[in-house]
Amino acid sequence: AEPLFRSGEHGLKFFPVMLYAIMRAVNRNREFRMGFDEEGRLGYWDEVVPSYTLFHPEDNTFTDVWSEYDSGFGTFYRTVTGDMERYGKVRGVIKARPGQPRNFCPVSCLPWLSFTSFSQDTYTDGPFLFPLIRFGRYFRRDGRMWLPLSVFVSHAAADGYHTCRLINDIQEIAARPELWPEGPETGDPAGGRGKR
Question: How far is CA 166 from CA 4, 25, 140, 188, in A?
């Protein structure tokens, strides 16, 4: 995934770039698109959207935001950075953006922590079939860049095989941004809105 760590060279923010790689992999694997519809029927969503947290350094709180998913990198990047800007100042509520659809996948970044293992117990009364994905602070070791990644899955939806396939897909997608539709090399995917 070495090219992702150079996203700043293209004027891009790392979090939305990594979020794209993760969501592209999640949407590639139907086991991680499993869920219940409004009538409680089990099935597979055509796609899932990212749900992520925004940190407020002023008071060390978080709010949840979700964004529409698009398989094209440029559209996805503009959507996520736009939502981060639009909802980034909303505080005092858990959900900064209302109307979160049922077909979401939670992804969080822990930029303060590099880890070799991360576990977060999640209790819910409802059916919790989507994966919980966390990634931490990247670092250089032995001349290579490393990014800690943790995936929590419901055993009702996926097994170790499926989880390994998801992680391998994330790694493969992250390593080859030149293959992304509307990828970083196709001009300015940020539409002039990248970090400068």
Answer: 18, 6, 23, 28
Burial class (CB in 10 A: 0-12, 13-18, 19+), 18: buried
Active-site pick, 10, 56, 155, 162 = 155
Tokens of 105: 């996948």
Q: What is the pLDDT of residues 162-193, one digit of tens each?
A: 999 999 999 999 888 888 887 665 444 444 43
pLDDT digits (tens, 9 = 90+) for 78-88: 999 999 999 99
Instruction: Give phi and psi for 108, each to the nearest 5.
Output: -130, 150
Beta bridge partners of 141: 144
For the chain, how long is the longest CA-to-CA vector? 52
Residue 79, phi then psi, degrees to nearest 5: -65, -50
The pTM assigned to this predicted structure is 0.86
Q: Are 63 and 54 in contact (CB under 8 A)?
A: yes
Residue 155: active-site member: yes
Let me know the angle formed at the C-alpha of 33 by 86 and 182, rounded to the nearest 5 degrees: 55
* Complete edge-to-edge strand list for the sheet that includes strand 104-110: 61-66, 49-56, 104-110, 132-136, 149-152
Query: Contact, 139 vs 114, CB < 8 A?
Result: yes
